[in-house]
Amino acid sequence: MKKIAYVGALTILFSACETNEKKSPEMAVTYPETKKVDTVDTYFGTEVPDPYRWLEDDRSAETEAWVKAENKATFGYLDKIPFKDEIKQKLEKIWNYEKIGAPFKEGDYTYFYKNDGLQNQYVIYRYKTGEDPSTAEVFLDPNTFAEDGTVSLGGLSFSDNGKLAAYSISEGGSDWRKVLVMDAETKEITEDTLVDIKFSGISWRENDGFYYSSYDKPDGSELSAKTDQHKVYYHKLNTAQKEDKLIFGGTPEQKHRYIGAGTTEDNKYLILSASNATSGNKLYIKDLSKPNADFVAIVDTEETNTSVIENVGSKLYIVTDKDAPNRKIVTVDAANPTPENWEDFIPETENVLSPSTGGGYFFAEYMVDAVSQVKQYDYEGKLVREVELPGIGSAGGFGAKKEDKELYYSFTNYTTPGSIYKYDIKSGASELFRKPAINFDPENYESKQVFYTSKDGTKVPMIITFKKGLELNGKNPTILYGYGGFNISLTPSFSITNAIWMEMGGVYAVPNLRGGGEYGKEWHDAGTKMQKQNVFDDFIAAAEYLISENYTSSDYLAVRGGSNGGLLVGATMTQRPDLMKVALPAVGVMDMLRYHTFTAGAGWAYDYGTSEDSKEMFEYIKGYSPVHNVKAGTEYPATLVTTGDHDDRVVPAHSFKFAAELQEKQAGDAPVLIRIETDAGHGAGTPVSKQIEQTADIFAFTLYNMGFDVLPEKTKSEIKG
C-alpha cells in the first residue's frame, strides 16, 4: 500500500536540606483576576455551573487579554528561577548535533531529512540515486516558510514517477493545512495553493492528481468550532480547487467524522476508511480500472479496526482485530471482500501485531511487554526469519516499495539515541547505517522493566530509567510520565530532554497504563468509558510503587502527560493531590462535560463516552473531569499547565478553565500557573527553539518546587565535598 495518513487520537539527586524549603517572598505569585459568569448547564436534572465559559471564545479581546496577563504572571515567576538559563544552555548543547533520517527513493533521487542541530525544522535533502550522498542538495527547507519557524511541514508525497511532489504546511501549529504542488526537478511551485485541508494524507493516483480529506470551514472560530463531517476529494492537477471532485462524504448516508482514502501501490484500487470515533472503522474498496465503479463495503460497521495493507492483483491482504483483539492478517478476493470470505494469513498471537510490507515480504512487528520483536514472512505466509534487532527497545520503519532490495529501520530505547540500520531484505543482514554523534553515553545509564500491581490486582509494566549508581534514598527527583488512552502504546524511545533530566540525576518512569494498546484491544477497552478510572488507578499505583521502592517520595515526584495524558495528570492531581509535589499537564482534555462540542472532539467518545449519553455516564464523567473536581480549601501540588493558543485538537479553553479553577481554589503556597505558547498548536511542528525554551521552563519549575536552589548535580557534589 502507498502511505495513507489516517486520523489518530485525536510526548538531580537531593537537596542539601532534609525538607523542601519555603520559597522567598519575591517568588510569590499574584494571579490575574479571572471574572466569573452565571452560565449553568443542566444534565439529566443536575445543574452544573460553568463560570469560566467565556474563556472558550478564543477570538475575543477579553480572552486575549487574559492570556497576556496569565503569561506575564507565569514568565515573571519562571524568569526568577536562578538555574533556568543553565538548564536551557544544557539543552542547547546536547540538542546541537546532526540528526538524519532514513533515506527513501522517489523517481531518480534518494531523499532524506536532516537537521544540522538547532534548526527549527528539518530540511529535506536529495541526491541522484547511485551517486555519492555527499553531493546531496537542499530539496525543501521548511525553515524558509517563516522567520520564527512557526510554519512547519505537515506531510510530503510524491507522484508515482517521482516527478511531482505535494506537501502540506501548518501555520502556528494548527491542524488546518495548506497543500502546495511542485515540480520535483525544478523545485518550482506549479499551481495555486490548496487551502482549508484538515486531518488528511495526500495519496497520488499515478501522476495525474491526488486524494485528500477535509471539512467544510465551520461557522465561528476555525480553531474551536465543531467539525464533524469529513469529505474525500480528488484534485486533478492544473485545475482549480473549487473543481475538485467529491469522492465520498457530504450526504446523510456517508456522514463520518474521519475519512481517509489512498490508492494501492499498483493504483488498481482506492481504499477508503470511514469512522465516527478514533477506534473502529468502516472499510470500502473501489476498482479504479472501471470508470464508473462504486465503492464496495469490505466492513460496513465500526465495531472493529480494519485496513488493507497490500494487494497482489485482486488478492487483498487485510489487517484486522475482528475476532482477533491482538490483530491478524487475512486474505480475500476483492470481488467478494466481506468477512465471511476471509482466510487467515498471519494468525493472531498473544502479542499485538503491527505489520508492514517491503521488497516483496511482510514484516510483522509484535509488542512483547511493550518492546519490539519483528518477524519476516513471504507472500505465502511462510515465516522466513525473526529479524535480529540491535537490542531491547523499539524498532520501526520496516517498509519499502515492492521492487526494493533493501530497507532502512530505526532502533531506539530510553538510553539509546535513535540509530538507522540498513537491512538486506533477501539475506536478512543488518548493518548500522547512521548513528547520531550526540554527547550522551548510554553506558552511564540503565533501564529496568518492573511489573507492579494496580488497585484491582492488574499487573502493569513500567520502565524506569536513571543514571547508574542511583541511591534509593527516596530523594531522587522523578518524572512519572503517562498517557493511557486511544490504543496508543508507549514503547521505549530516546528523548533529548529526558537525557538532560537523567544527566542531572533525575529518574524517568513510564508505565504502560490500561487504555493504551500495549496488550491489544482488551487492554485498550479496559481503560475506556465506565472503566476510565482504571487508567488513573494504574497511574496512582505506579507513583506508589516508585515511592515504596525508594526511587523517590511525594516531595520529589512530578507527574507529566499531554493531551489525553494531560487529562490523566489533571484527574490524578485532583484525586490524590498529596501524591506528588509537581503536576505538569500539557494540552489536556480537562472539561470532560464539553470536550465533544469542540472541533473533532466528538470522535473521542469511544474512549470517553459523553455527558449526553446517559445519566449514569454523565455522573461517571463528572466524577473525574478535572475542571469539575478542583475543590476549594485543598492544597494542590505546584502546577504548570501548558498549552498553545493555536491548538485546534484539544482547544486551549480546557487548560484555561482548569488553571482558573486552580488559581481560585488553591489553599496551599504552591504556585499554579499556566504557560500559553503563542503561534503554537497541539505539538506537531513546534520549532526547536520553542521546544528548548518550554522544556527549560518546565524542568526549572519542577526542580525549584522540589526545593532546589541550584541544580541537583551541583547539590550532590557540594554534599560530597
From TrEMBL:
Residues 32-435 form the Peptidase S9A N-terminal domain. The keyword Protease applies. GO terms for cellular component: cytosol; periplasmic space. Residues 492-707 form the Peptidase S9 prolyl oligopeptidase catalytic domain. Keywords: Hydrolase, Periplasm, Protease, Serine protease, Signal. GO terms for biological process: proteolysis. Pfam families: Peptidase_S9 (PF00326), Peptidase_S9_N (PF02897). It catalyses: Hydrolysis of Pro-|-Xaa >> Ala-|-Xaa in oligopeptides. One of its GO terms (molecular function) is serine-type endopeptidase activity. It is found in: Periplasm. Its EC number is 3.4.21.26. The keyword Hydrolase applies. Cleaves peptide bonds on the C-terminal side of prolyl residues within peptides that are up to approximately 30 amino acids long. Has an absolute requirement for an X-Pro bond in the trans configuration immediately preceding the Pro-Y scissible bond. Belongs to the peptidase S9A family. This is prolyl oligopeptidase. It comes from Leeuwenhoekiella palythoae.
